[in-house]
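Let us work through a complete example step by step.
Step 1: write down the sequence.
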Amino acid sequence: MNTDMVQLKLGDMIVDVVQKNIKNIHLSVYPPEGRIRISAPNRLDLTTIRAFVISKLGWIRKQQTRLKNQKREVPKEFINRESHYFNGKRYLLKIIEREAAPKVVLKHSTIELHIRPQTNAMKRKSILNEWYRQKLKETVPSLIEKWEKKMTVQVNEFGIKKMKTRWGTCNLRAKRIWLNLELAKKPPEYLEYIVVHEMVHLLERKHNNRFTALMTGFIPRWRFYKDELNRLPVSHMDHAR
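Step 2: predict the structure and record it as tokens.
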């Protein structure tokens, strides 16, 4: 694919422009500092791209302000009494060292992390993430089955993975959806919203009026969930035309 990278400057704003062999122009604002990137078709000239950016200045400023004001998550150390989340609820981490296979046990107000002595922070994180992954794998199939019946669509498979800029994706041809591992930490209704969002793409590929109408019909509060998730660092803000 032919790509070309240039920068546009509008006052104090710098926009990275990448031109590709694509059909539509796509504008993204990335955390943490609000970097702006345009992906544009090769056929568009810079004057047209500049005009598009100018037309979206208000939207760009709004997203940059939101990113600047959002709470930053302190990097985890995976130590005793550190706060961790599951299903939207806060738990305190309890480290239990013992010479046995590692495991995670959910209690009323704690997440017990059973590990061997001398287990470092990276391995502790890996063990906890695998537990989160397993919890999602236990929950998601029933959600998919529920919404397959309501939408009259079929999901062939789903997967869980760490994603930096997406809460979920959908491969239309394979009828496969991917969900962000971080959703295990969010309230169940947020997970369901993302599952439904990706499944609606099996009915409507684009984020157009039909997509919006379908989402509203299935989950009336979907915009609230979207806004809440977009306040978090994992999701960048984007706008496509």
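Step 3: interpret the result. The longest strand covers residues 89-97.
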